[in-house]
Amino acid sequence: MPEHFTRNTLECTAWCAKCQRDTQHRVDGGRRGPCIDPKHPVPEFSKAQMTRREKLAEEKRNSRLF
Ligand SMILES: [Zn+2]
Known about the structure:
32% helix; alpha+beta; three-stranded antiparallel beta sheet
């Protein structure tokens, strides 16, 4: 069952799947929020976006060749 926090709880310790360990999480309105561990890995989407951009640039380069 979901854990309940008092309204003045701002942080809690919870398991983070990305950090693969118990970390500090923010508590938003009595619910467990995002992991706030300083070592929490940054989202990978920016890397994926860059890869996508590179691919598009490469495709453009290739289409210019043919
Ligand atoms: Zn984390």
